Amino acid sequence: MLSDLALVLNCGSSSVKFAVLAPRSKEMLISGLVEKIGSSGTRLIYHLDHGKIINSLEGASYDESLNHVFKLVESKSEWINHLKAVGHRVVHGGEYFKSSTVVDKEALEKIKACIPLAPLHNPANALGIEKCMEKFPNLPQVAVFDTAFHQTMPKHAYLYALPYEWYESYSVRRYGFHGTSHQYIAEQAAEILNIPLEKSCFVTAHLGNGCSMAAVQYGKSIDTSMGLTPLEGLVMGTRSGDLDPAIHLYLAENLNLSLKEITDILNKKSGMLGLSGISMDLREIEEAANKGNERAQIALEINTYRLAKYVGAYAVALGKLDALIFAGGIGENSDVIRSKVIQHLGLLGFQLDEKHNANNGKENRGIITAKNSTVAIVVKTNEELVIARDALSVGVKK
């Protein structure tokens, strides 16, 4: 028998990810996405009843794509009868939102007010909310923010050394992202390691095409690597991560490009793609490195060196370190990246267990380090579950 369900919607600039979940049992009834919206190759891909289904939606607009998702969800009458809320991933909540919230007219306006801080994401997030308000007028629409988990950072962690009035007038500060993932994997690691969350100190690493790290003390974020935007921090698939801010002007003058064009390159053509010249896909880079490609090899070294430096910095911020947590597509699956990072961390007491690392810790509760080592653990993240859980807990009156 089905329990209360939540529809989870993650609207991007050219894609819509969706899922229907039962948070109480953690059951995923359907998950999928519409990709390449409004262009050649638009298609709906979803997983249902242990099968993968692909439907062509050639050239479908954003509205049409969302309608296909709604139609698919409505095709299961038992889901509709148990659907209690819609949870929306919203990338940027600025300083308005410190937790998930039911979206009313006022909240929607604040989400739109954050568009200058996330111009690629928040417009699509807001559109998804508006469409769901029309389609499901009797269901609470709950916004779950990437930035909310990091709102517990102290001022000394989130302020930049800039004229203070820029923070006051233009909200220039570090916000951080991937908050739902950092929150979830910290909770899971505490449970696996039998450490009370309120007494734990973790460095969390969400590593995918976008990568970020956080210092999570007693279940709360006290620092994180991404900043005002997702460009700051670690080396990512196509993003540069940390760099000298004067590079913008230097390159703009030498390449005769605008600052906007330089920013676009730093976001879309840099990172592992720019370094390797091969791909943003880490699997392809690892394969090339194994074959002796020097640019692929140095890309891996830069990536993992930067990761290890952040672990050291966050160990200082935390005061103690119960575990380093790896999550995300790369964190959960790349034994090479984990191995290279841990090789840098001997000073902090890390010692890799090669066997457990090779199988992603699956035979050892996710733990990939030796018995007397500081713990490094692989935890499978589940951002959809966090969004669904919040949608019901925040949106449904008890």
Give a summary of the structure in a few sentences.
By secondary structure, this protein is α/β, with parallel strands linked by helices.
- CATH homology-level superfamily of the largest domain: ATPase, nucleotide binding domain
Radius of gyration: 21 Å
Specify the helix fraction band.
Answer: 40-55%
The top level CATH class name of the largest domain: Alpha Beta
- Count of DSSP H/I helices: 16
- Reported CATH architecture of the largest domain: 2-Layer Sandwich
Shape: globular
Which structural class should the secondary elements be placed in? alpha/beta
Order of strands, main sheet, comes to 5-4-3-2-1-6-8-7
Task: Give the domain tally.
Answer: 2
Mean pLDDT score: 95
How would a crystallographer describe the biggest sheet? 8 strands, mixed
How many angstroms separate the termini? 20 Å
List segments where confidence is low: pLDDT < 50 over at least 5 consecutive residues: none
CATH-assigned fold name of the largest domain: Nucleotidyltransferase, domain 5
Instruction: Spell out the helices and strands N to C.
Output: EEEEEHHEEHHEHHHEEEHHHHHEHHHEH
The fraction of residues in strands falls at 15-25%
